[in-house]
Write a structure and sequence with these properties.
Two copies of one chain form a homodimer. By secondary structure, chain A is α+β, with helices and mostly antiparallel strands. Helices cover 43% and strands 24% of the residues of chain A. Strand 6 of chain A pairs antiparallel with strand 6 (120-133) of chain B, so a sheet runs across the interface. Chain A binds a DNA duplex (25 and 25 nucleotides) through helix 2 and helix 4.
Chain lengths: 135, 135
DNA sequence: GTGATTGCAAATTTTTTGCAAGATA
DNA sequence: TATCTTGCAAAAAATTTGCAATCAC
């Protein structure tokens, strides 16, 4: 529990019980949409409102504690791992799974760097392996 | 205009004026969200309702005339180019631009194919170069 | 003619907003 | 204590639904 507070403080945010609860939920979930976070938070903090969850998630994104993910179901998703990495994306349930493969990211970044894009400033590269979990 | 009808028929769909208008709009726009399509369609077909636009877009996705794109602003986006290709994604205005580079896609696919994923069936790979257009 | 498609209106889902009350540093 | 954060309630934005009327083949 201390590590959670530390991370929030480190990010330059005040450590409120609500923020701790949301960050703990994200630590547990890894990737999640808002209602999934709400569901998880409700276990230990049922009085927390959905507006606060939105507030907290946004403050986390703005301070670099979470990153938003790309989705194809018109909902916000967040990732607790903020370093650049690839993902599996399951189109059946819109879930993510990390694909930890620094070599792949490095290879793509290196390839990109050989190209000149004078009309676009690339900040990151997002790679998703799209498909479905095998039952 | 004939090519549009042909494509729709080819996809196994009845060629209604509404579908032609939506497909023409997508051909012009390349990538678009629903309200952008509606705006474009309204020029030539102002009586068309938003529900029909959703219907048509969905029928197009189901029949392979369009593909959905991943976005980070909780809205549906569609791509008129259905073959696999990478994109620039501008986080400032949530716009896409094609990054036609078959070599990149091939390289990543080849790299992926050297890995065994026995719990995930990969259908496609989505690569987005995330950043901002330079003014 | 028949089944698919459209239009409409209402509902649902997801996200945002404004502001008063409360908590943190 | 001053400022930031939370809770609430309402609104806005985006998508979906049901059904009757219309259209394409």
């Amino acid at each position: 529990m201390l590590a959670l507070k530390e991370k929030i403080k480190e990010a330059g945010l005040k450590t409120t019980p609500q923020r701790i609860a949301v960050y703990a939920a994200m630590r547990k979930l890894g990737h999640a949409c808002v209602d999934r976070v709400a569901e998880e938070v409700a276990v230990s903090f049922p009085s927390m409102t959905i507006a606060t969850i939105y507030n907290v998630l946004e403050s986390f994104v703005n301070s670099g504690l979470l990153v938003r993910r790309f989705s194809s179901n018109n909902k916000m998703y967040f990732d607790v791992n903020v370093y650049e990495h690839a993902h599996f994306y399951d189109t059946a349930d819109n879930s993510y799974e990390d694909f930890h493969d620094p070599e792949l990211v490095r290879m793509v970044m290196e390839y990109i760097s050989t190209r000149k894009f004078d009309n676009f400033n690339i900040k990151s590269v997002d790679i998703q392996l799209v498909g479905n979990k095998i039952a």
